[in-house]
Structures are given as C-alpha cells and as structure tokens.
C-alpha cells in the first residue's frame, strides 16, 4: 500500500516536497524535544536521560533512513522516466510536446537531486543538536 502513494508522490514534485516537509518535523522540533525531555540539574533524578536520548536517537535514525529511501527511490523513478523520454525523443526529433515533457522531467529530477543536499544539511543540524545535548547521557553505536 505504501508503494502506490510513493509512486504518486514522485510524479508530483510539490507533493514530494510536502511529504518531506512533514517527515522532517522531528528534525525541526529536536531542540524543543530535547528541552522538554532532558532534565535540568534540579530534575536530573526524575527522568531517565539515557533512555530518552536512546529513544530520540532511534527516532532520528529511522526518520533519516526513511526520508533518504524515499528521495533516492523518487530520483531513480524520475531518472527512468527521463531515460525513456530521451529514447522516445531520439525516434521523434520533431515532437515539441515530447521535448517539453522531457525538459519538465529533467527539471524535476534536478530538484529531487537537490533535496538530497537539503537532507544532508537537515541531518547534520539534527545530529549536532543531539550530540550537544545527549553526549553526556548516551553514546550511540559507532555505526553512525
């Protein structure tokens, strides 16, 4: 059931961006999340900071992995469409509508590829904030 919606999402770039925006909510709210869940010195005994940081770490990893998977899947799908349109364009050099569609798909592909760069910046910012606040309480495995 996830596959058809992913396909629809890849076809419409605005929908693709909206999906990523919604999925980046955890990254947008990480500072708030850390401020509300990690204890200050006066409340250190009332909250399990290790468990809280561990759960947040898992949430961040899952969110980053799922977004990267969707972005790369859409890039691959759009690349295939561009390849097919190029092949059709070779056969029909005079087809203006085909050329227009090819250009639109190429533009969409470039925009999707730029989302990978945006994703890297968002992830780096989230990990920086996470490490600043949780380094005392939780040491993630070295695979990060």
From TrEMBL:
<keyword id="KW-0175">Coiled coil</keyword>
<feature type="coiled-coil region">
    <location>
        <begin position="75"/>
        <end position="119"/>
    </location>
</feature>
<dbReference type="Pfam" id="PF09774">
    <property type="entry name" value="MIX23"/>
</dbReference>
<dbReference type="InterPro" id="IPR019171">
    <property type="entry name" value="MIX23"/>
</dbReference>
<protein>
    <recommendedName>
        <fullName>Protein MIX23</fullName>
    </recommendedName>
</protein>
<comment type="similarity">
    <text>Belongs to the MIX23 family.</text>
</comment>
<dbReference type="GO" id="GO:0005758">
    <property type="term" value="C:mitochondrial intermembrane space"/>
</dbReference>
